[in-house]
Amino acid sequence: MSTIDATLQSNQQKAKQYVTKVYNATEQRNPHETEFLQAVKEIVGSLVPVIARHPEYMNSGILERLLEPEKVITFRVPWVDDQGKVHVNRGFRVQFNSALGPYKGGLRFHPTVNESIVKFLGFEQIFKNSLTGQQIGGGKGGSDFDPKGKSDMEIMRFCQSFMTELYQHIGPETDVPAGDVGVNAREIGYLFGQYKKMCGAFEAGVLTGKGLGYGGSLARTEATGYGLVYFVQEMLKDNGLDFKGKTVIVSGSGNVSIYAMEKAAEFGAKVVACSDSDGYIYDQNGINLDTVKELKETGDERISAYTEKHPSAEYFEDCTQIFSIPCDIALPCATQNEINAETAQTMLDNGVKAIGEGANMPSTNEAQDMFLENHILFAPAKAANAGGVAVSALEMAQNSGKISWAFEKVDARLQEIMKDIYQNSMQAASDYGTPGNLVAGSNIAGFIKVADAMTEQGII
Ligand SMILES: NC(=O)C1=CN([C@@H]2O[C@H](COP(=O)(O)OP(=O)(O)OC[C@H]3O[C@@H](n4cnc5c(N)ncnc54)[C@H](O)[C@@H]3O)[C@@H](O)[C@H]2O)C=CC1
Ligand SMILES: O=C(O)CCC(=O)C(=O)O
Protein backbone atom coordinates (compact mmCIF):
# COMPACT_ATOMS: atom_id res chain seq x y z
CA MET A 1 0.00 0.00 0.00
CA SER A 2 1.40 3.46 -0.93
CA THR A 3 1.89 6.16 1.72
CA ILE A 4 -0.97 8.18 0.19
CA ASP A 5 -3.34 5.20 0.32
CA ALA A 6 -2.33 4.46 3.92
CA THR A 7 -2.99 8.10 4.93
CA LEU A 8 -6.38 8.06 3.20
CA GLN A 9 -7.32 4.84 4.94
CA SER A 10 -6.23 6.16 8.31
CA ASN A 11 -8.19 9.43 7.78
CA GLN A 12 -11.24 7.40 6.80
CA GLN A 13 -10.96 5.32 9.97
CA LYS A 14 -10.51 8.37 12.18
CA ALA A 15 -13.50 10.05 10.53
CA LYS A 16 -15.63 6.95 11.07
CA GLN A 17 -14.62 6.78 14.74
CA TYR A 18 -15.34 10.48 15.18
CA VAL A 19 -18.80 10.24 13.57
CA THR A 20 -19.67 7.17 15.63
CA LYS A 21 -18.51 8.85 18.85
CA VAL A 22 -20.53 11.99 18.13
CA TYR A 23 -23.63 9.97 17.21
CA ASN A 24 -23.36 7.86 20.37
CA ALA A 25 -23.04 10.97 22.51
CA THR A 26 -26.12 12.45 20.83
CA GLU A 27 -28.03 9.27 21.50
CA GLN A 28 -27.01 9.31 25.15
CA ARG A 29 -27.98 12.92 25.55
CA ASN A 30 -31.37 12.57 23.80
CA PRO A 31 -32.34 8.94 24.46
CA HIS A 32 -36.07 9.33 23.80
CA GLU A 33 -35.89 11.51 20.71
CA THR A 34 -36.41 8.75 18.17
CA GLU A 35 -37.18 10.90 15.12
CA PHE A 36 -34.33 13.31 15.85
CA LEU A 37 -31.86 10.43 16.22
CA GLN A 38 -33.14 8.88 12.98
CA ALA A 39 -32.48 12.13 11.09
CA VAL A 40 -29.05 12.52 12.71
CA LYS A 41 -28.03 8.95 11.91
CA GLU A 42 -28.92 9.32 8.25
CA ILE A 43 -27.04 12.58 7.85
CA VAL A 44 -23.87 11.97 9.85
CA GLY A 45 -23.52 8.50 8.32
CA SER A 46 -22.99 10.09 4.91
CA LEU A 47 -20.46 12.65 6.15
CA VAL A 48 -17.58 10.22 6.85
CA PRO A 49 -15.82 10.83 3.49
CA VAL A 50 -16.14 14.61 3.99
CA ILE A 51 -14.65 14.52 7.48
CA ALA A 52 -11.89 12.21 6.23
CA ARG A 53 -10.93 14.74 3.58
CA HIS A 54 -11.39 17.74 5.92
CA PRO A 55 -10.08 16.75 9.37
CA GLU A 56 -10.30 20.45 10.31
CA TYR A 57 -14.07 19.95 10.79
CA MET A 58 -13.28 17.30 13.39
CA ASN A 59 -10.73 19.50 15.14
CA SER A 60 -13.17 22.40 15.45
CA GLY A 61 -15.98 20.18 16.76
CA ILE A 62 -18.32 21.03 13.88
CA LEU A 63 -20.55 17.99 14.31
CA GLU A 64 -20.83 18.36 18.08
CA ARG A 65 -21.93 21.97 17.61
CA LEU A 66 -24.21 21.22 14.65
CA LEU A 67 -26.10 18.54 16.57
CA GLU A 68 -26.97 20.79 19.49
CA PRO A 69 -29.63 23.43 18.72
CA GLU A 70 -28.55 27.00 19.38
CA LYS A 71 -31.77 27.51 21.33
CA VAL A 72 -34.89 25.48 22.18
CA ILE A 73 -37.91 27.44 23.33
CA THR A 74 -40.81 25.60 24.97
CA PHE A 75 -43.87 27.43 26.18
CA ARG A 76 -47.42 27.09 27.48
CA VAL A 77 -50.23 27.94 25.07
CA PRO A 78 -53.51 28.42 26.95
CA TRP A 79 -56.69 29.05 24.95
CA VAL A 80 -60.46 28.97 25.43
CA ASP A 81 -62.79 26.90 23.21
CA ASP A 82 -66.23 27.95 21.94
CA GLN A 83 -67.88 26.41 25.02
CA GLY A 84 -65.72 28.48 27.38
CA LYS A 85 -63.51 25.52 28.36
CA VAL A 86 -59.84 26.23 28.98
CA HIS A 87 -57.20 24.15 27.15
CA VAL A 88 -53.44 24.14 27.51
CA ASN A 89 -51.13 23.08 24.68
CA ARG A 90 -47.38 23.09 24.42
CA GLY A 91 -45.57 25.38 21.98
CA PHE A 92 -42.05 24.88 20.57
CA ARG A 93 -39.51 26.75 18.52
CA VAL A 94 -36.16 25.16 17.86
CA GLN A 95 -33.61 27.67 16.61
CA PHE A 96 -31.16 25.13 15.33
CA ASN A 97 -28.45 26.85 13.35
CA SER A 98 -27.92 30.44 12.18
CA ALA A 99 -24.59 30.05 10.35
CA LEU A 100 -26.14 30.95 6.99
CA GLY A 101 -28.81 33.43 8.03
CA PRO A 102 -31.83 33.96 10.27
CA TYR A 103 -33.48 30.73 11.45
CA LYS A 104 -36.06 29.68 8.87
CA GLY A 105 -38.60 26.88 8.92
CA GLY A 106 -42.25 26.12 9.37
CA LEU A 107 -44.63 25.69 12.28
CA ARG A 108 -46.52 22.41 12.61
CA PHE A 109 -49.80 22.12 14.51
CA HIS A 110 -50.54 18.43 15.02
CA PRO A 111 -51.21 16.28 18.12
CA THR A 112 -48.02 14.26 17.50
CA VAL A 113 -45.73 17.30 17.80
CA ASN A 114 -43.11 16.99 20.54
CA GLU A 115 -39.49 18.03 21.00
CA SER A 116 -38.13 15.10 19.00
CA ILE A 117 -40.33 15.89 16.00
CA VAL A 118 -39.49 19.58 16.06
CA LYS A 119 -35.79 18.83 16.42
CA PHE A 120 -35.70 16.36 13.54
CA LEU A 121 -37.51 18.87 11.34
CA GLY A 122 -35.25 21.72 12.45
CA PHE A 123 -32.12 19.65 11.93
CA GLU A 124 -33.12 18.64 8.39
CA GLN A 125 -34.02 22.25 7.69
CA ILE A 126 -30.40 23.38 8.20
CA PHE A 127 -29.20 21.27 5.27
CA LYS A 128 -32.24 21.91 3.10
CA ASN A 129 -31.94 25.66 3.51
CA SER A 130 -28.24 25.50 2.75
CA LEU A 131 -29.00 23.61 -0.48
CA THR A 132 -31.29 26.42 -1.70
CA GLY A 133 -28.24 28.71 -1.95
CA GLN A 134 -30.03 31.41 0.01
CA GLN A 135 -29.11 33.13 3.26
CA ILE A 136 -31.29 31.18 5.66
CA GLY A 137 -30.43 29.19 8.77
CA GLY A 138 -32.44 26.26 10.09
CA GLY A 139 -35.32 26.23 12.57
CA LYS A 140 -38.72 24.70 13.13
CA GLY A 141 -41.57 24.97 15.58
CA GLY A 142 -45.12 24.04 16.33
CA SER A 143 -47.53 22.74 18.88
CA ASP A 144 -49.37 19.58 19.86
CA PHE A 145 -52.60 21.48 19.17
CA ASP A 146 -54.96 19.55 16.86
CA PRO A 147 -56.68 21.91 14.39
CA LYS A 148 -58.95 19.09 13.16
CA GLY A 149 -62.57 19.82 14.03
CA LYS A 150 -61.84 23.23 15.56
CA SER A 151 -63.92 26.27 14.64
CA ASP A 152 -62.39 29.25 12.91
CA MET A 153 -62.60 31.27 16.13
CA GLU A 154 -60.87 28.53 18.12
CA ILE A 155 -58.06 28.43 15.57
CA MET A 156 -57.76 32.22 15.80
CA ARG A 157 -57.62 32.24 19.60
CA PHE A 158 -55.04 29.47 19.61
CA CYS A 159 -52.84 31.27 17.06
CA GLN A 160 -53.07 34.50 19.06
CA SER A 161 -52.05 32.77 22.28
CA PHE A 162 -49.18 30.97 20.51
CA MET A 163 -47.84 34.22 19.08
CA THR A 164 -48.25 36.12 22.34
CA GLU A 165 -45.28 34.10 23.58
CA LEU A 166 -43.41 33.49 20.32
CA TYR A 167 -43.24 37.11 19.11
CA GLN A 168 -40.34 38.02 21.38
CA HIS A 169 -38.13 35.28 19.89
CA ILE A 170 -38.67 35.98 16.17
CA GLY A 171 -38.19 38.83 13.69
CA PRO A 172 -37.27 39.42 10.02
CA GLU A 173 -33.54 39.28 10.83
CA THR A 174 -33.77 36.75 13.69
CA ASP A 175 -36.15 33.91 12.96
CA VAL A 176 -38.79 33.70 10.23
CA PRO A 177 -41.42 30.98 10.71
CA ALA A 178 -43.83 29.76 8.00
CA GLY A 179 -46.44 27.02 7.57
CA ASP A 180 -46.12 23.25 7.78
CA VAL A 181 -48.70 20.55 8.59
CA GLY A 182 -51.84 22.17 10.01
CA VAL A 183 -50.56 25.69 9.36
CA ASN A 184 -51.61 27.27 6.09
CA ALA A 185 -52.58 30.80 4.92
CA ARG A 186 -55.39 31.18 7.48
CA GLU A 187 -53.17 30.37 10.48
CA ILE A 188 -50.31 32.51 9.12
CA GLY A 189 -52.79 35.40 8.88
CA TYR A 190 -53.85 35.08 12.52
CA LEU A 191 -50.23 34.65 13.65
CA PHE A 192 -49.16 37.71 11.66
CA GLY A 193 -52.01 39.83 13.04
CA GLN A 194 -51.01 39.00 16.61
CA TYR A 195 -47.29 39.61 15.93
CA LYS A 196 -48.18 43.05 14.53
CA LYS A 197 -50.26 43.85 17.58
CA MET A 198 -47.58 42.71 20.05
CA CYS A 199 -44.80 44.61 18.25
CA GLY A 200 -46.78 47.64 17.19
CA ALA A 201 -45.11 47.46 13.78
CA PHE A 202 -45.89 46.02 10.36
CA GLU A 203 -42.87 43.83 9.75
CA ALA A 204 -43.90 41.82 6.70
CA GLY A 205 -40.69 39.77 6.66
CA VAL A 206 -41.32 38.09 10.02
CA LEU A 207 -43.43 35.27 8.56
CA THR A 208 -43.70 33.74 5.09
CA GLY A 209 -46.64 32.08 3.39
CA LYS A 210 -48.66 35.24 4.02
CA GLY A 211 -51.78 36.27 2.09
CA LEU A 212 -51.07 38.06 -1.17
CA GLY A 213 -52.70 41.29 0.03
CA TYR A 214 -50.25 41.86 2.89
CA GLY A 215 -46.85 40.74 1.67
CA GLY A 216 -47.23 37.14 0.55
CA SER A 217 -45.46 35.89 -2.56
CA LEU A 218 -47.17 34.55 -5.62
CA ALA A 219 -46.29 30.87 -6.12
CA ARG A 220 -45.47 30.22 -2.44
CA THR A 221 -48.62 28.10 -2.13
CA GLU A 222 -47.58 25.98 -5.10
CA ALA A 223 -43.83 26.04 -4.42
CA THR A 224 -43.18 22.84 -2.45
CA GLY A 225 -45.31 20.59 -4.67
CA TYR A 226 -44.18 22.19 -7.93
CA GLY A 227 -40.56 22.22 -6.76
CA LEU A 228 -40.76 18.51 -5.95
CA VAL A 229 -41.96 17.70 -9.45
CA TYR A 230 -39.31 19.97 -11.03
CA PHE A 231 -36.64 18.13 -9.04
CA VAL A 232 -37.95 14.67 -9.94
CA GLN A 233 -38.23 15.75 -13.58
CA GLU A 234 -34.51 16.61 -13.55
CA MET A 235 -33.69 13.23 -12.05
CA LEU A 236 -35.88 11.41 -14.60
CA LYS A 237 -34.44 13.40 -17.51
CA ASP A 238 -30.90 12.53 -16.45
CA ASN A 239 -31.92 8.88 -16.72
CA GLY A 240 -33.72 9.11 -20.06
CA LEU A 241 -37.22 9.19 -18.54
CA ASP A 242 -39.98 11.73 -17.86
CA PHE A 243 -43.42 12.10 -16.26
CA LYS A 244 -45.29 11.70 -19.54
CA GLY A 245 -47.60 8.68 -19.48
CA LYS A 246 -46.37 7.54 -16.07
CA THR A 247 -48.67 6.31 -13.30
CA VAL A 248 -48.11 8.35 -10.15
CA ILE A 249 -49.21 7.98 -6.54
CA VAL A 250 -49.15 10.93 -4.16
CA SER A 251 -49.82 10.38 -0.47
CA GLY A 252 -51.57 13.09 1.56
CA SER A 253 -53.97 15.67 0.16
CA GLY A 254 -52.67 18.83 1.79
CA ASN A 255 -50.65 21.72 0.42
CA VAL A 256 -47.65 19.74 -0.84
CA SER A 257 -49.68 16.86 -2.29
CA ILE A 258 -52.18 19.04 -4.15
CA TYR A 259 -49.54 21.02 -6.04
CA ALA A 260 -47.38 17.97 -6.67
CA MET A 261 -50.43 16.32 -8.27
CA GLU A 262 -51.16 19.46 -10.28
CA LYS A 263 -47.65 19.75 -11.76
CA ALA A 264 -47.24 16.00 -12.34
CA ALA A 265 -50.53 15.98 -14.28
CA GLU A 266 -49.43 19.06 -16.22
CA PHE A 267 -46.26 17.15 -17.17
CA GLY A 268 -48.42 14.37 -18.61
CA ALA A 269 -48.53 11.89 -15.72
CA LYS A 270 -51.67 10.10 -14.56
CA VAL A 271 -52.07 10.54 -10.80
CA VAL A 272 -54.28 7.69 -9.62
CA ALA A 273 -54.27 7.91 -5.82
CA CYS A 274 -54.01 10.27 -2.87
CA SER A 275 -54.87 10.04 0.84
CA ASP A 276 -55.53 11.66 4.17
CA SER A 277 -54.90 10.37 7.67
CA ASP A 278 -58.09 8.22 7.51
CA GLY A 279 -57.66 6.44 4.18
CA TYR A 280 -56.90 6.70 0.48
CA ILE A 281 -58.74 6.97 -2.82
CA TYR A 282 -57.92 5.20 -6.06
CA ASP A 283 -59.27 6.66 -9.28
CA GLN A 284 -58.15 4.71 -12.32
CA ASN A 285 -59.30 7.60 -14.56
CA GLY A 286 -56.90 9.95 -12.85
CA ILE A 287 -57.61 12.03 -9.73
CA ASN A 288 -59.86 15.04 -10.34
CA LEU A 289 -57.88 17.77 -8.64
CA ASP A 290 -60.72 20.30 -8.60
CA THR A 291 -62.63 17.92 -6.34
CA VAL A 292 -59.64 17.39 -4.02
CA LYS A 293 -59.11 21.17 -3.79
CA GLU A 294 -62.80 21.67 -3.05
CA LEU A 295 -62.68 19.08 -0.25
CA LYS A 296 -59.35 20.09 1.28
CA GLU A 297 -58.56 23.71 0.38
CA THR A 298 -62.03 25.28 0.42
CA GLY A 299 -63.70 22.81 2.75
CA ASP A 300 -62.61 20.82 5.77
CA GLU A 301 -63.69 17.39 4.55
CA ARG A 302 -62.31 13.87 4.50
CA ILE A 303 -60.88 12.42 1.28
CA SER A 304 -63.53 9.64 1.43
CA ALA A 305 -66.06 12.26 0.20
CA TYR A 306 -64.29 12.19 -3.19
CA THR A 307 -66.19 9.05 -4.19
CA GLU A 308 -69.55 10.85 -3.82
CA LYS A 309 -68.63 12.96 -6.85
CA HIS A 310 -66.69 10.24 -8.64
CA PRO A 311 -68.49 6.93 -8.04
CA SER A 312 -66.05 5.01 -10.21
CA ALA A 313 -63.28 5.84 -7.72
CA GLU A 314 -62.71 3.56 -4.74
CA TYR A 315 -62.04 4.51 -1.11
CA PHE A 316 -59.97 2.33 1.23
CA GLU A 317 -59.47 2.78 4.93
CA ASP A 318 -55.88 2.59 6.20
CA CYS A 319 -53.87 5.35 4.58
CA THR A 320 -50.63 3.38 4.97
CA GLN A 321 -51.74 0.99 2.22
CA ILE A 322 -51.73 3.63 -0.54
CA PHE A 323 -48.28 2.47 -1.62
CA SER A 324 -49.55 -1.03 -2.31
CA ILE A 325 -50.99 0.34 -5.57
CA PRO A 326 -48.55 -0.36 -8.42
CA CYS A 327 -47.09 2.82 -9.90
CA ASP A 328 -44.09 4.12 -11.85
CA ILE A 329 -43.44 7.11 -9.60
CA ALA A 330 -44.34 7.50 -5.92
CA LEU A 331 -44.43 10.92 -4.28
CA PRO A 332 -44.87 10.53 -0.50
CA CYS A 333 -46.18 13.93 0.61
CA ALA A 334 -48.01 13.24 3.88
CA THR A 335 -45.82 12.66 6.92
CA GLN A 336 -42.64 11.18 8.41
CA ASN A 337 -42.00 7.42 8.28
CA GLU A 338 -45.00 6.66 6.09
CA ILE A 339 -42.79 4.23 4.12
CA ASN A 340 -41.17 1.51 6.20
CA ALA A 341 -39.17 -1.53 5.06
CA GLU A 342 -42.30 -3.61 4.45
CA THR A 343 -43.92 -0.88 2.35
CA ALA A 344 -40.67 -0.37 0.47
CA GLN A 345 -40.55 -4.09 -0.37
CA THR A 346 -44.10 -3.96 -1.74
CA MET A 347 -43.18 -0.96 -3.87
CA LEU A 348 -40.08 -2.72 -5.17
CA ASP A 349 -42.08 -5.88 -5.94
CA ASN A 350 -44.60 -3.73 -7.83
CA GLY A 351 -41.85 -2.26 -10.01
CA VAL A 352 -41.66 1.34 -8.82
CA LYS A 353 -39.12 3.29 -10.90
CA ALA A 354 -38.70 6.56 -9.04
CA ILE A 355 -39.49 8.09 -5.66
CA GLY A 356 -39.62 11.79 -4.82
CA GLU A 357 -40.04 12.74 -1.18
CA GLY A 358 -42.35 15.74 -0.69
CA ALA A 359 -42.92 15.15 3.02
CA ASN A 360 -40.06 15.48 5.49
CA MET A 361 -38.41 12.10 6.18
CA PRO A 362 -41.28 10.01 4.76
CA SER A 363 -39.04 6.94 4.40
CA THR A 364 -37.42 5.18 7.33
CA ASN A 365 -33.66 4.75 7.04
CA GLU A 366 -34.18 1.05 6.27
CA ALA A 367 -36.63 1.84 3.45
CA GLN A 368 -34.26 4.43 2.04
CA ASP A 369 -31.37 1.94 2.02
CA MET A 370 -33.55 -0.60 0.21
CA PHE A 371 -34.38 1.88 -2.54
CA LEU A 372 -30.72 2.81 -2.95
CA GLU A 373 -29.53 -0.80 -2.94
CA ASN A 374 -32.09 -1.62 -5.63
CA HIS A 375 -30.97 1.35 -7.76
CA ILE A 376 -34.38 3.04 -7.69
CA LEU A 377 -34.18 6.72 -8.66
CA PHE A 378 -34.54 8.32 -5.25
CA ALA A 379 -35.00 12.05 -4.58
CA PRO A 380 -34.58 12.66 -0.83
CA ALA A 381 -36.75 15.14 1.02
CA LYS A 382 -34.21 17.73 2.01
CA ALA A 383 -33.34 18.29 -1.64
CA ALA A 384 -36.62 17.49 -3.35
CA ASN A 385 -38.98 19.48 -1.10
CA ALA A 386 -36.73 22.53 -0.72
CA GLY A 387 -38.84 24.54 -3.18
CA GLY A 388 -41.19 25.75 -0.44
CA VAL A 389 -38.56 27.27 1.75
CA ALA A 390 -36.70 28.58 -1.31
CA VAL A 391 -39.75 30.59 -2.34
CA SER A 392 -40.19 31.66 1.29
CA ALA A 393 -36.74 33.22 1.00
CA LEU A 394 -37.88 34.92 -2.21
CA GLU A 395 -40.88 36.21 -0.24
CA MET A 396 -38.46 37.67 2.35
CA ALA A 397 -36.49 39.33 -0.46
CA GLN A 398 -39.67 40.86 -1.92
CA ASN A 399 -40.72 42.06 1.56
CA SER A 400 -37.42 43.75 2.24
CA GLY A 401 -37.63 45.57 -1.12
CA LYS A 402 -41.36 46.25 -0.57
CA ILE A 403 -42.12 44.82 -4.03
CA SER A 404 -44.08 41.90 -5.51
CA TRP A 405 -42.87 39.73 -8.33
CA ALA A 406 -45.07 38.15 -11.01
CA PHE A 407 -45.97 34.48 -10.64
CA GLU A 408 -43.89 33.62 -13.71
CA LYS A 409 -40.80 35.26 -12.26
CA VAL A 410 -41.04 33.37 -8.97
CA ASP A 411 -41.83 30.10 -10.73
CA ALA A 412 -38.88 30.52 -13.12
CA ARG A 413 -36.57 31.17 -10.16
CA LEU A 414 -37.98 28.11 -8.39
CA GLN A 415 -37.20 25.94 -11.42
CA GLU A 416 -33.62 27.24 -11.53
CA ILE A 417 -33.16 26.61 -7.81
CA MET A 418 -34.45 23.03 -8.04
CA LYS A 419 -32.15 22.33 -11.00
CA ASP A 420 -29.19 23.77 -9.09
CA ILE A 421 -29.97 21.64 -6.03
CA TYR A 422 -30.12 18.57 -8.24
CA GLN A 423 -26.83 19.38 -10.00
CA ASN A 424 -24.99 20.32 -6.79
CA SER A 425 -26.17 17.18 -5.01
CA MET A 426 -25.15 14.97 -7.93
CA GLN A 427 -21.77 16.70 -8.08
CA ALA A 428 -21.14 16.26 -4.34
CA ALA A 429 -22.16 12.58 -4.55
CA SER A 430 -19.68 12.04 -7.31
CA ASP A 431 -16.89 14.11 -5.66
CA TYR A 432 -17.15 12.02 -2.48
CA GLY A 433 -17.28 8.57 -4.03
CA THR A 434 -21.01 7.77 -4.21
CA PRO A 435 -22.02 8.76 -7.77
CA GLY A 436 -25.77 9.01 -8.34
CA ASN A 437 -26.61 8.78 -4.62
CA LEU A 438 -28.69 11.88 -3.99
CA VAL A 439 -29.09 11.07 -0.28
CA ALA A 440 -25.36 11.30 0.32
CA GLY A 441 -24.91 14.09 -2.23
CA SER A 442 -27.54 16.41 -0.75
CA ASN A 443 -26.31 15.78 2.80
CA ILE A 444 -22.74 16.55 1.80
CA ALA A 445 -23.52 19.61 -0.35
CA GLY A 446 -25.77 21.04 2.39
CA PHE A 447 -23.24 20.28 5.13
CA ILE A 448 -20.11 21.78 3.56
CA LYS A 449 -21.60 25.28 3.21
CA VAL A 450 -22.82 25.30 6.81
CA ALA A 451 -19.58 23.82 8.18
CA ASP A 452 -17.47 26.40 6.34
CA ALA A 453 -19.64 29.29 7.56
CA MET A 454 -19.46 27.95 11.13
CA THR A 455 -15.69 27.67 10.85
CA GLU A 456 -15.32 31.23 9.58
CA GLN A 457 -17.57 32.56 12.36
CA GLY A 458 -15.51 30.99 15.17
CA ILE A 459 -16.52 28.79 18.09
CA ILE A 460 -19.84 30.30 19.16
N1 LIG B 1 -45.97 23.18 3.37
C1 LIG B 1 -44.72 23.25 2.96
O1 LIG B 1 -44.30 24.23 2.34
C2 LIG B 1 -43.78 22.14 3.22
C3 LIG B 1 -44.19 20.96 3.78
N2 LIG B 1 -43.32 19.90 3.89
C4 LIG B 1 -43.74 18.63 4.44
O2 LIG B 1 -44.75 18.05 3.63
C5 LIG B 1 -45.62 17.22 4.42
C6 LIG B 1 -47.06 17.66 4.24
O3 LIG B 1 -47.18 19.03 4.63
P1 LIG B 1 -48.34 19.98 4.13
O4 LIG B 1 -48.86 19.50 2.83
O5 LIG B 1 -47.83 21.34 4.24
O6 LIG B 1 -49.40 19.78 5.26
P2 LIG B 1 -50.97 19.97 5.23
O7 LIG B 1 -51.41 20.20 6.61
O8 LIG B 1 -51.37 20.95 4.18
O9 LIG B 1 -51.44 18.54 4.74
C7 LIG B 1 -51.08 17.36 5.36
C8 LIG B 1 -51.91 16.28 4.72
O10 LIG B 1 -51.42 15.01 5.07
C9 LIG B 1 -52.51 14.22 5.51
N3 LIG B 1 -51.97 13.26 6.45
C10 LIG B 1 -51.51 13.42 7.70
N4 LIG B 1 -51.06 12.27 8.19
C11 LIG B 1 -51.25 11.37 7.21
C12 LIG B 1 -50.97 10.02 7.09
N5 LIG B 1 -50.42 9.33 8.09
N6 LIG B 1 -51.26 9.41 5.90
C13 LIG B 1 -51.82 10.10 4.90
N7 LIG B 1 -52.11 11.38 4.96
C14 LIG B 1 -51.83 12.00 6.10
C15 LIG B 1 -53.48 15.18 6.11
O11 LIG B 1 -54.78 14.65 6.15
C16 LIG B 1 -53.36 16.34 5.13
O12 LIG B 1 -54.14 16.09 3.98
C17 LIG B 1 -45.07 17.33 5.86
O13 LIG B 1 -44.13 16.30 6.06
C18 LIG B 1 -44.35 18.67 5.83
O14 LIG B 1 -43.36 18.76 6.83
C19 LIG B 1 -42.04 20.00 3.43
C20 LIG B 1 -41.58 21.14 2.88
C21 LIG B 1 -42.38 22.34 2.82
O1 LIG C 1 -41.16 28.05 4.08
C1 LIG C 1 -40.62 27.82 5.14
O2 LIG C 1 -39.96 28.62 5.77
C2 LIG C 1 -40.79 26.48 5.80
C3 LIG C 1 -40.84 25.30 4.91
C4 LIG C 1 -40.72 24.09 5.76
O3 LIG C 1 -41.15 24.05 6.88
C5 LIG C 1 -40.00 22.95 5.24
O4 LIG C 1 -39.24 23.09 4.28
O5 LIG C 1 -40.13 21.84 5.80
UniProtKB/TrEMBL annotation:
SMART domains: ELFV_dehydrog (SM00839). Residues 217-458 form the Glutamate/phenylalanine/leucine/valine/L-tryptophan dehydrogenase C-terminal domain. The keyword RNA-binding does not apply. It holds the Pfam family ELFV_dehydrog. It comes from the Bacteria. NCBIfam families: PRK09414.1. Homohexamer. Belongs to the Glu/Leu/Phe/Val dehydrogenases family. This is Glutamate dehydrogenase. It comes from Lentibacillus amyloliquefaciens.
